[in-house]
Specification:
The chain is an alpha+beta fold and 364 residues long. Helices cover 59% and strands 10% of the residues. It has a five-stranded antiparallel β-sheet, with no helix packed on it. Keywords: Cell membrane, Membrane, Transmembrane, Transmembrane helix, Transport.
Length: 364
């Protein structure tokens, strides 16, 4: 039996490898996962949530370059390397976009950047604010590859860090839905009778409520926040898993190997865990891939409505909400770029779900 199951697994793997879009989607998802984990290492703005605001350079086009003056702060916040790499740098220094600067004997004279042909304020700063009175390391050209948002934040950095929420909500939501769905579906399908009727009643009631409405209700009950959204989305997606597991168990539980397991005196828990679930996981894996995509879309919708991840946390859905009116103001890229990110990640999960369905179908 073990060699037979291994051969089926190898056959499914070979079929999956022959599917170009499935393999491409797999590596794209791996790439997004890598970006999500190491976002603060890759992002040009590695401050927490990439939240460095420069209102003087708001809504600038991709490729915009400006001279940036960093004014050191006397307040130093101790921070570990691990915390800095994976959760962002706690920035106390002040960044100022400038148009011109000159060095006096003991002062730094600079003119702040101003757009639309205006001249910015002229200011002076003592050189003693800088270590060894050396300002060369504190004035540099900064390029915003994706431009800046309406608050003057680096859009590329926000996109990279926003990938965390969209990517990890899929894992958390699917994990929660799998635990609840497999347990409820197994109980309903295996025991039948009143247990099945009661669980199906719960499933039907849950399914009758629009998903977005249910998520909003759960989010309001749990409160606004990062983990609350993850839990809320997971609690609304288990019904599909439960129905699939229930249907599969009903069709499998009367087969001869299950009857033999009962005759050997195995407990119901062992039969479900060791003999039934391993043989019905193919459709569950496929529906889990689809649930990944659904979770990303639901979170984006919640963030767009303002009850998802809260500011200043970066979220693709929140970026669309902040900038959708810029579509008619001549700067559509501010909403289109995060929209394309959502679309590409959802499409990748849908394609990998289709590839898994074809690979795990023994009839093909």
């Amino acid at each position: 039996m073990s060699s037979y199951s291994n051969s089926l697994r190898q056959l499914a793997l070979r079929k999956f490898k022959r599917n170009f879009w499935g393999v491409f989607s797999f590596w794209f998802i791996v790439f997004v996962g890598f970006v999500a984990i190491f976002a603060y290492i890759l992002a040009p703005d590695n401050s927490q949530y990439a939240n460095q605001m420069h209102l003087a350079i708001h809504s600038k086009k991709p490729g915009f370059t400006v001279t940036m003056l960093t004014i050191p702060s006397e307040i130093k916040t101790p921070q570990g390397t691990f915390d800095k790499l994976f959760f962002g740098k706690k920035v106390t220094d002040t960044e100022v976009p400038i148009a011109y600067y000159s060095l006096g004997k003991d002062t730094l004279n600079y003119t702040e950047y101003a757009s639309d042909g205006l001249e910015g304020m002229k200011k002076h700063l003592g050189l003693n604010r800088f270590p060894n009175k050396d300002v060369s390391n504190y004035i540099q050209e900064k390029t915003f590859l994706f431009g800046t948002d309406k608050y003057g934040r680096d859009l590329l950095s926000r996109i990279l860090i926003g990938a965390r929420i969209s990517f990890f909500i899929g894992f958390v939501a699917v994990f929660i839905s799998l635990i609840i769905g497999i347990v409820m579906g197994s109980l309903a399908g295996y025991f039948g009778g009143k247990v099945d009727a009661f669980i199906m009643w719960i499933i039907n009631v849950t399914w009758s409520i629009p998903t977005l409405l249910l998520v909003i209700a759960i989010t309001l009950a749990l409160g606004k926040g990062f983990w609350q959204v993850f839990i809320a989305v997971g609690l609304t997606m288990w019904v599909e898993v439960a129905r699939v597991v229930r249907g599969q168990i009903i069709s499998v539980k009367e087969m001869q190997y299950i009857t033999a397991a009962r005759a050997l005196g195995y407990t119901d828990f062992r039969i479900i865990k060791k003999h039934i679930l391993p043989n019905i996981m193919a459709p569950v894996i496929v529906i889990s891939a689809a649930n990944f995509a659904s979770a990303i879309l639901i979170e984006s919708g919640l963030s767009f409505l303002g009850i998802g991840a809260q500011p200043p946390m970066a979220s693709w859905g929140a970026m669309i909400k902040d900038h959708y009116n810029y579509i008619i103001l001549g700067k559509p890229y501010l909403a289109i770029i995060p929209g394309l990110c959502i679309m590409s990640l959802v499409m990748a999960f849908m394609l990998i779900g289709n590839a898994l369905r074809d690979a795990l179908d023994v009839k093909n």
